[in-house]
Amino acid sequence: MSSNEISAIRESWFKGSPHEKIGVTERYVVFGEARRWMINQLGLGTGETLDVGSGHGFLTFELASMTASHIVGLDFLSGKQMRMATGGSQLGGFTDRISFLVADARRLPFPGGKFDAVVSFNALQDVSMTVGEEASGEVVEEACRVLKIGGVFAFADNLFPECFRTPSQKLYGKIHQEDLRASLPSLETLLSHLNSLKNLTQVQFDPRINLSEEEARVEFMDIADARPFGMVVDFEALWKKHRSSIRTTGLSYPDVLLISGTKN
User: Fold this and answer.
1) How far apart are CA 42 and CA 38, in angstroms?
2) 234 and 220 Cβ atoms separated by less than 8 Å
3) For residues 195 and 140, what is the distance between their CA atoms, to the nearest angstrom?
4) In 3-state terms, what secondary structure has residue 263?
5) Beta carbons within 8 Å of 102's beta carbon, 6+ residues apart
6) Looking at the whole model, is its pTM more than 0.85?
7) Which residue of 10, 136, 149, 250 is most buried, as measured by CB atoms within 10 A?
8) Per-residue DSSP letter, 254
9) Collapsing DSSP states into helix, strand and coil, what is residue 110?
10) Residues 90, 36, 208, 77: what is their CA dihedral angle, to the nearest 10 degrees?
11) Residue 72 and residue 102 in contact, taking contact as beta carbons nearer than 8 Å
12) Under a CB-based contact definition with an 8 Å cutoff, are residues 44 and 118 in contact?
């Protein structure tokens, strides 16, 4: 598969975005650089790969583009998100290598030792928003359970405490924790759930995405409008609370922290 298929999927996203929110969509798609960075760290080849929290399918599509794996994209949301993911798979012409499934990542519907790789990108924060950050441990333990001996584990997210290095990144984290209920446990806490893995490594990637005040306003308005996982966000209150700090400090996407290893 060439980059043309991925480009076609991205273009369909741009066309479907309201003009005033195109910047939000572009930043999410540009985040593909971080996803490709992640895949390049792993050396995946053929075999079966599980993408936990696949969402709209962007990591799934990048995996299909950059590896020879068959990928199962799993998410607990159905509806429009799943329709967009399956539509992207059809648009890209790789339905023979990608399948999507709706299921709970805390109780994966697979036998132990099924997959050659289990990967995830920015999905643990969604778990935190819906059932609490302590559930992150359950998710990674389940990922390890369905991994073959010698298989690759790779989970990346940008809401670990260690992801916030600069003042503008720390402000991003503060807003997500206080107003969006999106936070993750420390790296040390998560690693305590990965006793079945060896060769554990942690590397970070700075996406270098800095938001202007107006870009930040539109982004948080978009989040409020989307009502993630049914959560009601009072945009006016959020903006009144943080606007001055955003204007003074700036707002930047945090580093992406990748935790990877192989199963003993």
Assistant:
1) 7
2) no
3) 11
4) strand
5) 74, 75, 76, 77, 78, 82
6) yes
7) 136
8) P
9) coil
10) 50
11) no
12) no
Where do the DSSP E strands lie in the chain? 48-52, 70-75, 98-102, 115-121, 147-157, 197-205, 210-211, 251-252, 256-263
Q: Which CATH class is domain 3-159+185-209+254-263?
A: alpha beta
The per-residue b/e assignment along 24-63, b for 16 or more CB within 10 angstroms, e otherwise, is bbeebbebbebbeebbeebebeeebbbbbbbbbbbbbbbb
CB contact set of 15 (below 8 Å; sequence gap of 6+): none
User: Nearest CA to 121 among 210, 55, 69?
Assistant: 55
Give the start-to-end residue ranges of the domains of the chain.
3-159+185-209+254-263
Residue type, 89: S
Give the CB-side neighbour count of residue 247, counting CA atoms within 13 A.
6
Model confidence over 193-251: pLDDT tens digits? 999 999 999 999 999 999 999 999 988 998 898 887 778 999 999 999 999 999 999 99
Tokens of 78: 């159905």
**Contact (Cβ atoms closer than 8 angstroms) between residue 57 and residue 84:** yes
* Nearest 10 degrees: Cα torsion 188, 192, 197, 198: 50
Name the residue among 243, 228, 207, 218 with its Cα closest to residue 22. 218
The two tokens of residue 105 are: 């990542």
Cα(78)–Cα(161) distance, integer angstroms: 30
Residues present in the chain in total: 264
pLDDT in tens, 99-130: 999 999 999 999 999 999 999 999 999 998 88
